[in-house]
Amino acid sequence: MSVAAIIVAAGRGVRAGGEMPKQYRALAGKPVLRHTAEAFAGHPSVDRVLVVYNPADQELYNAAVGDLELLPPVAGGASRQESVRNGLQALAAPETPEVVLIHDAARAFVPPEVIQTVIDAVADGGAIPALPVVDTLKRAEDGATITETVSRSGLWRAQTPQGFPFAAILAAHEAAAGEELTDDAAVAERAGIAVTVVPGAEENIKLTTQQDFDRAERALAGTETRTGMGYDVHRFGPGDHVMLCGIAVPHSHGLIGHSDADAGLHALTDALLGAIGAGDIGDHFPPSDPKWAGAPSDVFLKHAAELVAARGGRIVNLDLTLICERPKIGPHRETMRARVSEIVGTSEDRVSIKATTTERLGFTGREEGIAAQAIATIVM
Ligand code: MG
């Protein structure tokens, strides 16, 4: 079964404010239309995607979705209904789809399951996603005084995409030209096409007001996962302990470095900086600066954690591997986890510390120094 999708993006969207039509406004770093187009273009059951737009927005359109695999956009009309009709007519040749989904660009968060459910429900008739009305309904014609409490039983809030057999909805739209119907289901109903209701989704909201945009930004925050890695080595020298993960571990040697030479904390610091693209430990704490001579390395890690937080990030987990023959890390592991989680301000279960040897091979095997590697995962 061939399925095409029409995304209606020709409106001016003035209610949401802003200087450009709302379908081109950025939301979580990309235009609304791109969120929407990706939902369909990336859906395994959708073969072709066509955007109906206002040619005056050509540059905005190119910037938003020019690189996606879409059909060439089609100019909209004076009303939404006319725009949909233009889109349907453009899809009719050369390869007529069997099913068409008609979707509003402003419903940028349509879940893939909703798209699939609508496709599956289209047969001889159409199908639309909808949610039952749960609030009590009041009629107040003058906007103040209630004249009636309206029964909500059997009432549904219609969403998009609305799905139809292609030939039937094209004919219905052509027959309804000049009339003003509120959605494509109404056009279908007028033509006697049966339309069924399938489950919609609360997140499938239509971005209309500034408040909708603000709410969507908040909902999207924390959904981007980032990863950073860090690696560090310090050489053994004279001493009676090494600093590792913020604690002093008794040993026959010390570690040499400009600071306290805590390779574990240095690797963790670089991993966090890496996750936010903030350079490396040397950029923030230049070894040339005497201020950091002998400095306790928790200062570095704390700074990196604060940078992550300042950018709206939250640490999901830190995973560190210490590589050395000696000292033995196992007896100190839990103390190290507690110390690291305290420095970065996260719970201990989000901090992992592991140790390995290199089977006496290489510089760590010859006990010339200690290496550490770390991975940090954050959401922002
Ligand atoms: Mg170092």
Primary descriptors:
380 residues; Spore Coat Polysaccharide Biosynthesis Protein SpsA, Chain A; 60s Ribosomal Protein L30, Chain: A; 5-stranded mixed sheet; 12 helices
Notes on the structure:
- The protein is α/β, with parallel strands linked by helices.
- The chain folds into 2 domains: 3-221, Spore Coat Polysaccharide Biosynthesis Protein SpsA, Chain A (Alpha-Beta Complex); 225-379, 2-C-methyl-D-erythritol 2,4-cyclodiphosphate synthase (60s Ribosomal Protein L30, Chain: A, 2-Layer Sandwich), CATH 3.30.1330.
- Helix content is 30%, strand content 27%.
- The chain is built from 12 helices and 19 strands.
- Strands 5-4-1-6-11 form a 5-stranded mixed beta sheet, sandwiched between helices. A 5-stranded mixed beta sheet has the order 16-13-19-17-18.
- The structure holds magnesium ion.
- Magnesium ion (MG) is lined by residues 232, 234, 257, 263, 266.
State the end-to-end CA separation: 40 Å
Low-confidence stretches: none
Strand order of the largest sheet: 5-4-1-6-11
The domain count comes to: 2
Q: State the secondary-structure class.
A: alpha/beta
Radius of gyration: 30 Å
Would you tell me the overall average pLDDT? 94
Biggest sheet features:
5 strands, mixed
Mind telling me the CATH superfamily name of the largest domain? Spore Coat Polysaccharide Biosynthesis Protein SpsA, Chain A
Q: Specify the number of helices.
A: 12
Which CATH class of the largest domain applies here?
Alpha Beta
Give the overall shape, derived from the CA principal axes.
elongated
Give the helix proportion (percent range): 25-40%
